[in-house]
Amino acid sequence: xxxxxxxxxxxxxxxxxxxxxxRTLGAPKMTIFGIQHMFAMFGATIxxxxxxxxxxxxxxxFAGLGTLLFHFLSKGKVPAxxxxxxxxxxxxxxxxxxxxxxxxxxxxLGVACAGLLYLIVSALFKVFGPQRIMRFFPPVVTxxxxxxxxxxxxxxxxxxxxxxxxxxxxxxxxIVISNIWGRGxxxxxxxxxxxxGSYVAAAFAGVVDFAxxxxxxxxxxxxxxxxxxxxxxxxxxxxxxxxxxIITIMPLAFATIIEHIGxxxxxSSTCNRNFIAEPGLHRTLLGDGLATIVxxxxxxPANTTYGENTGVLALTRVFDPRVVRIAACFAILFSFCPKFxxxxxxxxxxxxxxxxxxxxxxxxAVGIRNLVENHVDFMMSRNVxxxxxxxxxxxxxxxxxxxxIVFEVGGxxxxxxxxxxxxxxxxxxxxxxxxxxxxWDGGLAAxxxxxxxxxxxxxxxxxxxxxx
Length: 468
Description:
Elements: E1 4-5, E2 18-19, H1 27-52, H2 56-73, E3 82-84, H3 89-95, H4 104-134, H5 139-161, H6 165-181, H7 185-188, H8 190-204, H9 211-215, H10 239-249, H11 252-271, H12 276-297, E4 303-305, H13 307-316, H14 321-335, H15 338-345, H16 349-373, H17 381-398, E5 404-409, E6 412-417, H18 418-432, H19 442-451
Antiparallel strand pairs: 1-2, 3-4, 5-6
Helix pairs in contact: 1-2, 1-8, 1-14, 2-12, 2-14, 3-4, 3-10, 4-10, 4-11, 4-12, 5-11, 5-16, 5-17, 5-18, 6-8, 6-16, 8-16, 11-12, 11-13, 11-18, 13-16, 17-18
């Protein structure tokens, strides 16, 4: 089978072929692609420790290690990067509202326990198979969910852009011009160019404070023992606080698991590969869960598959997971350099906002493509209702004052994100409402697994066969 496949991109008739083996591009270009993926995830990844009080260096280290662990467990086939998860910020805030250093390890313990739920769900996928599980996730459900993933993130991009719109527009302009009118390498590294160009513009505009960079050391350890969960188990261990953290934070994993399935659908649709069938959701969930557990135990944020990097995939058409692993290695390397972490931490919000604005839009565009390519019939009232409720609930709740539906169960406060509520409602409506479309012949999925070839668009990942 050829390593390349012609696919449309960004509406350009002369768009380059999609690349599934980046070795054909040569080592220098592969390295540049890896650096681009690293910069794409930096903004959001370092924002989580900035908001919670966790270590930026530890975050970079375990984002890289978590990504490599994920790739090992998923047979090195899924081009996903694992960065800091925003879903658990509320959990950290509940246990350590002001980022108290002595309380954060308890929150990390709760997140580590939440990672165990990934392992349980992974086992269910392994036992029952993706066909039986994915019958609940047809295109009419996953398409709107993927659209919402991008749109829910959009306000954060706008908020960052509002700190300095001229610099943000520089990032957007560089990305658009590079991708549409660029030639050769320029055309396929627009994100990296956007980050560098707008960062330089921000420096000239005087909106970057480089004082932390000057004060930071060149080499240092990214993990401190006192910040780890292991440091809790001593004479001052508070068992009650530990139990509270576990009970408070563990339920958040149900929302992130649903989001993981949506992310895998988005990456599969972007790359035209059925990653839900091969290597299988049981492997990707296992990788995500173990990465979260390991990161949390050592005082880093929970990991999750990153939509920013899915946006890079959609923009560059370079789908080789090797490129993402290069990004992971760079993240690990730079985690030992506090000065580099300071450079990244000094990146202005307007730079992050300009780049994110494009990437988040690309995620939503993938969801629209999912609906179009799978020929979802919106003449059917059931499909209109399912899509409408997923969109309105996900976006409406996310933009509400609380940002979630909050309720108490047995004295424990539970907060369900808009995406989690919209996803659950969409799944339930698809089960309940009459007129559900039939699945496709299992031979297609089986053949795709055996030969590692892309499924036909009609039988793409979100339309897996229904098993009796």
